[in-house]
């Protein structure tokens, strides 16, 4: 395996906007962070001036309905983290502390493009520490109705094979196989926007979702096709966005994955279930140090594994 060092941002990034579900304005600052910090969210502006630090790990996930949420409403949470997480993972940024003063990450244009542009504007810097990679050792599968997801060993990097099947001619059945790298992510995935059906809007509003959705941040689908005047950015923008979401959700593993992910009719819930199943058995994965000529031994692997599954307070 090629040696690689951990990375962080060269300087802070400030992003403002509204959440797609709550519709509330929010200010978010992405700060450089030290090696082994991973991605953390510092939720500010809570009741009585409180703050809460949340690790962006699968054990912190509290909800997966239409978006990924970490934390809880009582003590502080952050919703719709998948797009910013996807941008960080897609560009290979390991360590960031995200300070956010509201309950939901800004939706921006509905893709990860603006996050990618902001990250590339300030730049990414290497750190002294080498990366640790999560190597998939054996197949793991989860199912939810007709939907399923699998994680398999794959030694060439992180491959995503994502397929969707919607009962509408506008989308239909789409599939894309994608090998993650910063250049490919930027070019093929980062601009794919979230999408939704107009027939579902009233029910979503009643359930507390999509209050900030508009044609500026969502590909809206009506009975006769796409309602956005500009149309889609690719004919298969829908499956590309599912890959974007999967990159973000699966980065909650806490490190880069060395393996192949295949999903059919998946979403946030299935991505989360995949991580739960992967980490449920130590025989499913190994923590590999990418430092030259060195692989984590059994005793050290146990310590490293614990680091990937922290207790969330």
Automatic annotation (TrEMBL):
Positions annotated to bind Zn(2+): 83, 241, 245
Keywords (A to Z) from UniProt: Hydrolase, Lipid A biosynthesis, Lipid biosynthesis, Lipid metabolism, Metal-binding, Zinc
Swiss-Prot/TrEMBL GO biological process terms: lipid A biosynthetic process
Protein's pathway: Glycolipid biosynthesis; lipid IV(A) biosynthesis; lipid IV(A) from (3R)-3-hydroxytetradecanoyl-[acyl-carrier-protein] and UDP-N-acetyl-alpha-D-glucosamine: step 2/6
GO CC, one annotated term: membrane
SUPFAM superfamilies: Ribosomal protein S5 domain 2-like (SSF54211)
Cofactor(s) listed in the protein's UniProt record: Zn(2+)
Catalytic activity: a UDP-3-O-[(3R)-3-hydroxyacyl]-N-acetyl-alpha-D-glucosamine + H2O = a UDP-3-O-[(3R)-3-hydroxyacyl]-alpha-D-glucosamine + acetate
Active site: 268
EC number: 3.5.1.108
InterPro entries per record: Ribosomal_Su5_D2-typ_SF, UDP-acyl_GlcNac_deAcase, UDP-acyl_GlcNac_deAcase_C, UDP-acyl_N-AcGlcN_deAcase_N
UniProt family annotation: Belongs to the LpxC family.
Protein role: Catalyzes the hydrolysis of UDP-3-O-myristoyl-N-acetylglucosamine to form UDP-3-O-myristoylglucosamine and acetate, the committed step in lipid A biosynthesis.
The protein, known as: UDP-3-O-acyl-N-acetylglucosamine deacetylase
Phylogenetic lineage: Bacteria, Pseudomonadati, Pseudomonadota, Alphaproteobacteria, Hyphomicrobiales
Gene label: lpxC
């Amino acid at each position: 395996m090629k040696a690689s060092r951990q990375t962080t941002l060269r300087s802070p990034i400030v992003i403002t906007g509204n959440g797609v579900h709550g519709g509330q304005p929010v200010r978010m600052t992405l700060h450089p962070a030290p090696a082994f910090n991973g991605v953390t969210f510092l939720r500010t502006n809570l009741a009585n001036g409180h703050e809460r630090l949340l690790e962006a790990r699968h054990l912190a996930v509290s909800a997966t309905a239409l978006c990924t949420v970490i934390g809880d409403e009582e003590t502080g949470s952050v919703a719709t983290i998948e797009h910013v997480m996807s941008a960080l993972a897609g560009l290979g940024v390991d360590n960031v502390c995200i300070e956010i003063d509201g309950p939901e990450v800004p939706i921006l244009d509905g893709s990860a493009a603006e996050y990618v542009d902001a990250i590339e504007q300030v730049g990414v810097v290497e750190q002294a520490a080498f990366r640790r990679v999560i190597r998939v050792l054996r197949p793991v599968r989860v199912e939810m109705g007709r939907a399923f997801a699998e994680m398999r060993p794959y030694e060439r990097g992180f491959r995503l094979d994502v397929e969707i099947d919607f009962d509408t001619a506008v989308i239909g059945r789409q599939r894309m196989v994608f090998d993650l790298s910063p250049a490919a992510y930027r070019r093929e995935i980062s601009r794919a926007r979230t999408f939704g059906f107009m027939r579902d809007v009233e029910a979503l509003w009643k359930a507390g979702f999509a209050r900030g959705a508009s044609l500026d941040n969502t590909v809206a689908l009506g009975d006769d096709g796409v309602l956005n005047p500009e149309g889609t950015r690719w004919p298969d923008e829908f499956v590309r966005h599912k890959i974007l979401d999967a990159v973000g959700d699966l980065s909650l593993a806490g490190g880069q994955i060395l393996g192949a992910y295949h999903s059919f009719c998946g979403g946030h819930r299935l991505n989360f279930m995949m991580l739960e199943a992967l980490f449920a058995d130590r025989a499913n994965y190994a923590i590999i140090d990418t430092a030259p000529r060195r692989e984590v031994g059994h005793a050290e692997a146990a310590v490293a594994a614990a680091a990937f599954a922290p207790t969330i307070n």
